[in-house]
Amino acid sequence: MDSREYPPPCLSWIIWGLGAALYLSGFYQRVAPAVMTDHLMADFSIGAASLGNLSAFYFYSYVAMQIPTGILADSWGPKKLLTAGAFTAGIGTLLFAAAPAIIFANAGRLLIGGAVGVAWVALLKLTMNWFPPRQYALTTGLALFCGVIGAVSAGVPLRIMVDHFGWRPVMLASAVLSLVVAIAILLIVRDDPSKKGYTGFLPSVGVKSHTAASLLAGLLKVFRYKNTWLLSLAPAGVAGPVLAFSGLWGVPFLSTHYNLSPAGSAAVTSVLLIAWAFGGPVLGAMSDRIGRRKPLYAAGSLAACAGWGMILFVPQWPVWVLIALASIVGFASGTVIIGFAFVKESVPPSLTGTVSGVCNMGAMIGPMVLQPAMGWVLDKNWSGIMEKGIKIYGLDAYQSAFGLMIAGSILAAVLVLFTTETYCRQKVND
Fold first, then answer.
1. What does the pLDDT look like over 64-103, one tens digit per residue?
2. Residue 343: Cβ within 10 Å count
3. Is residue 209 part of a domain?
4. SS3 labels along the chain
5. Span 334-384, pLDDT tens digits
6. Number of domains in the chain
7. 77 within some domain
8. Global pTM?
9. Is residue 337 one of the residues assigned to a domain?
């Protein structure tokens, strides 16, 4: 029997916090284009479709990295992934900040998305190694909270800095911060408490030798479980609308149709994200407490769908009502965090990293599809109005585009209803 003690909580939180720093950076990069839409459209001379594609380049590589990241988290360990991710994110942000044309900006966003795409799954792996199982849903909820702090910093604060300094210098400073995080992770983070002389919370399995065939077999194995499919597609309809609205189209919609300033519009989308941040840990802890995953996940999905319908299709709410609705939708959408605990419990422990990557890939498919698709719909319904070289879209154009968000929300609720409850217990065999 191992006589060593478990790691002190302060050390666990420091290790976790450095992983969360990259995840925070990823959220910041994810929604940053929302408050720079006018600058980007003017600087690169692009319309809604091209802008949606520029923002979505982040998600193209982010999604592509999820399955490899899940596999590598199980074989290489989270430290290598987090270090390489933070360094590459810094390089991608440098390229984006210096881009002389849209093709280079797209390339920068592509590098950023793939780099920060390792953060969530690697952080989940650190959580399993450094914290007791009973804290899993809570710590993943707090991770989402940290991510949303990053997204909120890309709202009003970023808009103020962009107006004062310009978007390129601000992105350059962001690149430097990513490189600092990379160095800190390299020096401090360890994959498992045993590397620091403590007992880990998961059994030590040693260093594994993985062949391409065995990695592929592990990937195919997670798809043998029904919940993998359902819980990997459902988050696209919950997280997708939140990130499509707050990450790109919410600010121009609110600025045009509620006559809010760009900073005021960013404040409303920040309220949505803050409520999302609180909803994650609260609903995650509630799920742990009642010992059920499915009811809260389904209820949250339905509540978010109803709230989106009220925000998008009932015109000219008073601003205080709009803020209240954004808070409700954001909090209800925090139910997506339950899905990660849910899907992790639906497969054997040896596949938790892989299935977490698959689930996170599903969550990011939502904004990856919605952002450019909504831009395409906006351009198709554009009436020809321009202001200062920027296309202005009418309410009917936005409502046509936002219909895609409602459809995704409905699909998410339906998928959750077909899942098999785990009762908060980890599956231990095939």
1. 887 777 677 777 788 889 999 999 999 999 999 999 999 9
2. 29
3. no
4. CCCCCCCCHHHHHHHHHHHHHHHHHHHHHHHHHHHHHHHHHHHHCCCHHHHHHHHHHHHHHHHHHHHHHHHHHHHCCHHHHHHHHHHHHHHHHHHHHHCCCHHHHHHHHHHHHHHHCCHHHHHHHHHHHHCCHHHHHHHHHHHHHHHHHHHHHCCHHHHHHHHHHCHHHHHHHHHHHHHHHHHHHHHHCCCCHHHHCCCCCCCCCCCCCCCHHHHHHHHHHHCCCHHHHHHHHHHHHHHHHHHHHHHHHHHHHHHHHCCCCHHHHHHHHHHHHHHHHHHHHHHHHHHHHHCCCHHHHHHHHHHHHHHHHHHHHCCCCCHHHHHHHHHHHHHHHCCHHHHHHHHHHCCCHHHHHHHHHHHHHHHHHHHHHHHHHHHHHHHHCCCCCEECCEECCCHHHHHHHHHHHHHHHHHHHHHHHCCCCCCCCCCCCC
5. 999 899 889 989 998 878 877 877 887 888 899 989 999 999 999 999 888
6. 1
7. yes
8. 0.78
9. yes
Quick count: other Cβ atoms within 10 Å of Cβ 20?
25
CB of 258 closer than 8 Å to CB of 265? yes
Is 206 a member of any domain? no
CATH number, domain of 310, equals 1.20.1250.20
Show the domain range for 248.
9-191+215-417
- In contact, 322 and 42? CB cutoff 8 Å: no
